[in-house]
Request: fold
Amino acid sequence: MTPTKLLLYAKGKKIDRQNRDSEMYNWFLVYAIPAISCGIGAAFNKDAHIEYPKQAILSEKTEESKEDTYDKELRQMILNEQKWAVQTEKRGLPPTIL
Reply:
């Protein structure tokens, strides 16, 4: 492996660790704290009714972020097409219909 490839690999691993860290942080806030609350509430207070989340919360967030990513990519693609059309007109080529 060349030093350039090693640097890219190291950057990729760093990004992977950051993603894993944020996933674990979100998991702890969404699932671990309510589970601990349920356990403590059930152990010490028999009358308290604490409800654990019934559906996966993180999967909904990832679906939303995928849609946001798709919209961003679509907007970027349209912007690039418009820039390309302007450049072709400056060169004297026939206008591009988008």
Residues 1-54 form one domain. The helical segments are 3-44, 57-90. The mean pLDDT is 80. The radius of gyration is 25 Å.
